[in-house]
Design a protein that fits this description.
- The protein is an alpha/beta fold and 295 residues long.
- The strands form three sheets. It has a six-stranded mixed beta sheet, with helices on both faces. A four-stranded antiparallel beta sheet has the order 2-1-4-5, covered by helices on one side.
- Helix 4 runs parallel beside helix 6, helix 5 crosses helix 6 and helix 6 runs parallel beside helix 7.
- The longest helix has 28 residues.
- Bound molecules: adenosine-5'-diphosphate and magnesium ion.
- The site of magnesium ion (MG) has 3 residues, from helix 2.
Length: 295
């Protein structure tokens, strides 16, 4: 193949997409044909996803469909095997020069990752640090923010997540819902462009789910761009601008929540949603039984 700069791989496609991947009108996240295998097993089989600025995208799908892996690829906790991801116009993990891709250095990767906040199913707070210290740690250590300034901001953020009265509490002294809200404040302390949530409420007791979803709703309302993996269909229906249903490493169906959740077109989406509804019902029945035994 003729390797002139005009048509050398991969510049032929990426030059075309560069105009779409940067600038205020471009999507904040632009993922094209993302592939990932583990030990020869394809886990992501060509995922395309655009997330506009200020948009909330909910990622639904059965366990093992590749949702966590996809978030980890956006955040460079995994390297992709094929395709491209741009975040705010920057190609994730690579620099393009003379039509060739070059791996970014560890330092450049760290710089890209700073702009992306991630909240996990397990809260992963530092157990030996107070809520306030958990929130100030990264801005001080990674960004070099002064201690006083970091603390002032952390106090604001703890207030924002409804924990203004808990700066001195250690994780073990907090409920799961409170810990998860500290984890959200901690991610926000880095002033991320994008927040990734990986089933943030699925490790919580049912009565604590609402307080975390409320914080996420507020965040969405304030215009944060978010990708949320969740089984909370009510949240997806009310808060998501766009819903993506994944199964077995592919996007099966996507669109507005009222369409994907309210009127799914694919059998796989329908059976997944049905399963979610019956699990919800069983959980409610279990709770009702537990409540009646309490009396
Ligand atoms: N580090 C890894 N090594 C090997 N297999 C993995 C790894 N991470 C995920 N997988 C596999 O990839 C598939 C998708 O996993 P995951 O992305 O966690 O799905 P989901 O979040 O939708 O449940 C699963 O079959 C899982 O076992
Ligand atoms: Mg997962």
């Amino acid at each position: 193949m003729d390797q002139t700069p005009e048509n050398a791989t991969p510049s032929a496609t990426s030059t075309a997409s560069r105009t779409r991947t940067s600038g205020p009108e471009a999507p904040l996240v632009h993922a094209v044909n993302v592939m990932k295998s583990f030990h020869g097993t394809e886990v992501l089989k060509g995922i395309d996803l655009d997330v506009q600025r200020g948009e909330v995208v909910c990622l639904l799908g059965p366990s093992g469909s590749g949702k966590t892996t996809f978030l980890r690829c956006i955040n460079q906790l995994e390297a992709i095997d094929g395709g491209r991801i741009w975040v705010d116009g920057d190609l994730v993990g690579y620099r393009e020069k003379d039509g060739h891709l070059h791996h970014l250095t560890d330092k450049e990767v760290a710089t890209q990752r700073r702009d992306i906040g991630m909240v996990f199913q397990r809260f992963n707070l530092f157990p030996h640090m107070t809520a306030l210290q958990n929130v100030t740690e990264a801005p001080i250590q990674v960004k070099g923010v002064g201690r006083k300034q970091a603390q002032e901001r952390a106090v604001q953020l703890l207030e924002q997540v409804g924990l203004g009265d808990k700066p001195s509490a250690y994780p073990a002294q907090l409920s799961g819902g409170q810990q998860q809200r500290v984890a959200i404040a901690r991610a926000l302390a880095m002033d991320p462009k994008l927040m990734l949530f990986d089933e943030p409420t699925s490790a919580l007791d049912p009565e604590l789910v609402g307080e975390v979803l409320r914080v996420m709703r507020d965040l969405a309302q304030q215009g944060m761009t978010m990708i949320v993996v969740t089984h909370e269909m009510g949240f997806a229906r009310d808060v998501a601008d766009h819903v993506v249903f994944m199964d077995a490493g592919v996007v099966v169906e996507e669109g507005k929540p009222q369409d994907v959740i309210g009127n799914p077109q694919h059998e796989r989406t329908r059976s997944f949603l049905q399963r979610m509804r019956s699990e919800d019902r069983e959980a409610r029945d279990d709770e009702a039984r537990a409540d009646s035994q309490d009396v």
